[in-house]
Amino acid sequence: xxxxxxxxxxxxxxxxxxxxxxxxxxxxxxxxxxxxxxxxxxxxxxxxxxxxxxxxxxxxxxxxxxxxxxxxxxxxxxxxxxxxxxxxxxxxxxxxxxxxxxxxxxxxxxxxxxxxxxxxxxxxxxxxxxxxxxxxxxxxxxxxxxxxxxxxxxxxxxxxxxxxxxxxxxxxxxxxxxxxxxxxxxxxxxxxxxxxxxxxxxxxxxxxxxxxxxxxxxxxxxxxxxxxxxxxxxxxx
Length: 237
Fold this sequence. Notes:
By secondary structure, the chain is mainly α. It has one domain: MetI-like (MetI-like fold, Orthogonal Bundle). Helix content is 81%, strand content 0%. It has helices spanning 3-12, 23-55, 59-70, 74-88, 92-95, 97-120, 124-132, 137-167, 180-189, 192-220, 223-236. Helix 1 (3-12) crosses helix 10 (192-220).
């Protein structure tokens, strides 16, 4: 049977849509671990990036640390933290926690850097004008900096989300579920249909994630910041 036929046959099998190993269950696991990892990364990276972008302090240290995190292979991170988490929790510490830690490390740099970049890119004249009107630093952040930088910040979250969704498949190597389970099991069983079925599911989820965050980015970006792009696009055309 050719590869296309094997893949279509795998999708057409009703057994692959039922139970704990079915596509809906594996998809739910994949989305859940990706969402939790992204949320943890955001909770860590956003305040740090916002503080650095607002104050201008420790910029070099933050950027260098982010670049160092980017260089860490996710598989290596899982392998490094696994002995510690497994000792703390023999069950989830072997399958779940290492994958979450690796995905958090993966998502941190784009969120931190884009948060810093978005806030640092706000014109200083606007901030000085706000201070001249008696606005506090907190008011400047909420009313000026954050609304103007939110589009850039969401771009960082979007990048982190796509990377996490695509890379979370590595957790299956260490026993976690998710869509990566189809890749690992398919290779072990020499089932090409299962392998490429898993590839299609992961690719589809990545595309959906990218599209959803692109819509979110457009929705939260102030219209005034979108108009120059439109006019520029018309001029180019």
